[in-house]
Every structure is written in structure tokens, then in C-alpha cells.
């Protein structure tokens, strides 16, 4: 069978898959690397390792395809958003990649907001003004090292770095990743002059933006190492979020995609660039006429992992006796399911890693509100799960404010293996939750976009029929009503404690890690 290889560069691993017209994944691989956290607010990756991991994943998957007797007809790329690194004139990295999780540009993002420019910028670029965005990161460089900013030949992110290793073409970037920089006007289809001025970069320092279906040429040396024919097309592809929607079949109207891994996101597809009036949603391209709007949250499965690390050690309970962290998390969730919906009046603001949507405020911290003596570990863990799902529901409510209707969500990620997570999510969103059998959904999305670029999948909505659904959970009406009544309290509490948390940061800032450590993004 003819297959497309999808290469998905993520925060802690690069995944490779091979899939054909039927959407079946035939070969998979994963190349891991550590996320370095060398200081407070910093989150970096070795940019060279990202480039090398993409090459390694391609070679490994291509070998697996040959063993099966299949034929590779194209390679297609996915990359996570908001990374930034200095590059030389040929696109090779000259320093670490600063990831989306890096918070050093908090002051610059706040300054843009304080000067009243943030909403207009977001309306034009589709990207919230936030420390995650390259716009704010470049403004930080402008303030801290203007000579480096000025003299660096090129600036780019994950996709540009991977292309430097895989492609033999000009310095280009796909429309999807460009739409996530905060520097690109998604309506006029050009680098935004005001954003460039704020960032302190020149247009010639940034890549030429091309459609996500653009076919480049795979580097001949890489093609030879992978055993692929010379001239095989390299589809530039898109960003990971939009491709995740495609990979779970969430492109038709009314179907949204939810990712519940270490972090989370809720996204749906529209047919034109859309800027919500309140500036709460991002808008990123999938193709020139299909756009993904939504919101990402920083905290999901990471909150339960934190609970396992802080609440289960040393207890004579099943969660403490688990052999590894995954088993401990599962035991905690089973225990938490014994607590009642609403956690007996306990609210959790689960912002352990700060928060993004729908408020896009840097510097947020987590909190429990309403603690009483009778609350136990089960209540604390369940309240954390409810807090995460309520945050996604706040994003969903924003869709409603824009007149975007939803009838179903398709969920992927490690958390969907828990009945508690899925049940709470369905009730909080008040929508049926279908579990998509696509563990490598983003990389599969890259494969499907590759098939679309080749003309073999003319209508992207046809991808929905290629995705198997392994289960569907409908919302419990009583729980949905309870979460609907609690949700305004979540938003009110989060906004009310902002000043307190800001003052805490001044008095007791986050400690510097003593050594580099690997965490999931």
C-alpha cells in the first residue's frame, strides 16, 4: 500500500507514523529528549536534537514501511507551536529553542497588554498576547540583548529547525505555524508591521510563509539514509493543534477535539479566520480555507501526577503502593471516583503551571478553596480533575458566545483511559465525549494532510469516517447542572485572587531548580 510518513515534533519526543488512505497507522516510532528547566521561568530544548530526532524518526519509520512491503509516497510534518531560536543564514540553530512553557517574557507581554495593544494584535494575528508567543519572546530579547536580536540572520521555531535538517529548499514556514507566532496577520496574509516593530525584528529575518500543502524536496542525503527515492515530496504540513483535530476526525461542523494529556486543549474547525470579540480564543490555520479556533490550558494530567507525588508517598493506601507513577495516578483516580460530584463543596484552581485560556494571564498559581476538615485525599484529587474540566468548559462557553454550536467532542490523550476523567469532562462540557482510537492523532493528522496535498483526500471532512470510536460517554444531567452552577465560582475565584498571587510572587518567587530536569509539556 502507498503510505505517507508523518513526523510530529513534540515538546518531549518526536513521533513518526506511516499511514495509508484508510487512515490505519502501520508503523510508529518515538525519539525522546529532555526538556531543560535550568532556571525559574525557563523551559528550553536542544534545537539540534530536535532536528536530529526528526531525521532519526523518518529513517526508522521508513525501514518499518519497507519491511511491510509498502511504498512511501510523501513525508509530511507537524510541529508544536510558539518555540523560538536564533538561526544562522542557512537556518541552523545558534542556541537553544525557547519553548511555549518558557515564562521569561511575562513582563513584555504584560506591557503590551497595559498599553492597550493586545486585543487588536490578537484580532489580526490570531495569537493571544502571552509569554508563550514568539512576539513576546522577541520583545524580551529586544530588551535584554538588542545586539543579538539585530545581528542574528534569522529567527525561527521548531518547523524551521526541522526543515533545515530535512529539506533542501528555501527558508520557508507554513501558514499554520506562522499563524501561531503573534507576528503574522492572518487576514492580510503578511507579517504584521506593528508586531514586527514591537518585536524588533525585520521581515527578512523571518521565513517566507507558504500554504500548509506546499511540497518541498526532501534532502537527498536524508532520502538516501532513509532508503527513499530522490525527489520524494516533503509536505511542509501544519502545527500540532490543527493537525490533532484532523487526526481524530474533528473537522466537520459541530465536532470539537479535546486533548487531555499532561496539558489540555479544546479546538474546533471553522471555514475562515475568526477573532473572538473578547480575545479569549486563538485562531490557527489548518489549510488556507480551514482554520482551528480554541484554547489551550497548561494543566491537565500533570495535576494528578502532582497529587501522586505529594499526597500518595508514604501512605498505607493502594496509591502509595503502586509500582510506578502511571499506576499511582490510576489508583488515585479510582479513589477519587468515590468522592461525590462537586467534591463536597471543594473548588480547585489547578494552575500549577500557570494558565493560558481563556484569560491568557501569565503568573497564575493554583489554589484550593472551601477546604474543611472532612475533606480527604479523594476530594482533593477529584476537585483537581473537576477544576481542569471546568477550565475546558470555560473555553467551550466562549465558543457559545461566538455562536459556534457543538454536538460532540472527540477526546484523546492519556487521561481518557480514566472513567472519572471522561465522565467529569462530559458533564462539565455537557456534551457527549467520543474516545477516538488514534493514540498518535497529531502525527496521523500530518499523514492525512499529506494525502490531501497529494490529491488523495480531497475533502478533509472525510477523515472523520477513517477514525474508529472506541467508546462514547453521555453527560449525567444532574452532574452537568451542578458543574454549570459551580463554573461562575471558578472564574470569579480565579480572577479575585490574582492580586494576592501577584503579591506572593513578589514575596516568595518560585525557587530556582538546583539541576536541569526533564518534564512533559
UniProtKB/TrEMBL annotation:
**TM spans (from-to):** none
Q: What keywords sit in the KW lines?
A: Kinase, Transferase
Q: Which InterPro entries match?
A: ATPase_NBD, Carb_kinase_FGGY, Carb_kinase_FGGY_CS, FGGY_C, FGGY_Carb_Kinase, FGGY_N
Presence of keyword Zinc-finger: no
Tell me the Pfam families matching this sequence. Answer: FGGY_C (PF02782), FGGY_N (PF00370)
Top-level division of the source organism's lineage: Bacteria
Its Gene Ontology molecular function terms?
A: kinase activity
Q: Where is the Carbohydrate kinase FGGY C-terminal domain?
A: 256-453
Q: Ranges for the Carbohydrate kinase FGGY N-terminal domain?
A: 4-247
Q: Which family does it belong to?
A: Belongs to the FGGY kinase family.
PANTHER family per UniProt: GLUCONOKINASE, SUGAR KINASE
Q: What name appears for this protein in its UniProt entry?
A: Gluconate kinase
Name the gene behind this protein: gntK
